[in-house]
Amino acid sequence: MGGVRLAVVGGDGIGPEVVAEGLKVLSAVLPDVETTDYDLGATAYHRTGEPLPDSVRAELAGHDAILLGAIGDPSVPPGVLERGLLLRLRFAFDHYVNLRPAKIWPGTATPLAHPGEVDFVVIREGTEGLYVGAGGTLAKGFPHEVATEESINTRVGVQRVVEDAFTRAAARPRKHLTLVHKTNVLTQAGGLWSRVFAEVSERFPAVQTAYQHVDAASMFMVTDPSRYDVIVTDNLFGDILTDIAAAVTGGIGLAASANINPTGAFPSMFEPVHGSAPDIAGKGVADPIATILSTALLLEHLGHPKAALRVQEAVAAELIARTAGAPLRTAEVGDRVATAVS
Ligand code: IPM
Ligand code: MN
């Protein structure tokens, strides 16, 4: 096992707390992890005036992977850190596959009365769509003000994420892939997504396909999520659907994600789906499981599937042992999982 050079960005709020537990588990399962901490987020922004200095971005690019906690703080206007740091990293490192697994772990409380077997993965496009910031504001502050926000969808961008989704679906037992969009209204972007999806599906005859509009998919995700195996969708639909997916599978405290650059040209970045939760920051009560499960995705991505499985098994044991309503201490959860994988 070669050494892993890991860049660590704790970030804001509960970010540093949960990342500390992720690192505990990671170093217990993989002996040779060399970490470098990067001070980014609200505090660094107030100090330097820059969400992500170019020199720091260049240093991050030299790592094998990035582990990120959470970004966002009430002291910074909305969008500054989200766009200037988190999205800038996703775009700069071409993280076009935003992988977000959703699974009901045994023993986990779900709001669904009869959930069945829920174990799917959402592949959210990560570099295009409404997130690119195209558009503008005219006549700002005037009664006739106009704001536009354009969704950018390129054939190359859609094709590469759709191909990745088919490849991942083909490797799973159910081999089922659902495209989610809104082709009845968004005919330009939806047309491109549908045509590319149909073209790529010809090369994957073993994968069964389905299409759903995003409103219907949102409904099925809360009424019958066990129908899904792999979902591929655009950046904003994927953002919304994965919060719904988290809510029906035990809450945002368990939801892991990977921002992957499959070409390996840039480091991939692993982060919990949840935000910085300033209301509970510093109290040691945040659930580190989402971050710990993100380290399992990191291990898988770097070619350590057995280590990833050990982490997932230890998490499963931790969740089974939990009693609903019992107080949770961030560091204790990390200690238990780290001990279980050692
Ligand atoms: C997420 C978050 C981000 C997103 C925000 C913080 C920019 O909600 O990772 O899902 O919208 O992608
Ligand atoms: Mn989100």
Automatic annotation (TrEMBL):
InterPro entries: ICDH/IPMDH, IsoCit/isopropylmalate_DH_CS, IsoPropMal-DH-like_dom. Keywords: Manganese, Metal-binding, NAD, Oxidoreductase. Its cofactor is Mg(2+); Mn(2+). Residues 5-337 form the Isopropylmalate dehydrogenase-like domain. SMART domains: Iso_dh (SM01329). It comes from the Bacteria. Pfam families: Iso_dh. PROSITE patterns: IDH_IMDH (PS00470). PANTHER family: D-MALATE DEHYDROGENASE [DECARBOXYLATING] (PTHR43275:SF1). This is 3-isopropylmalate dehydrogenase. It comes from Fodinicola feengrottensis.
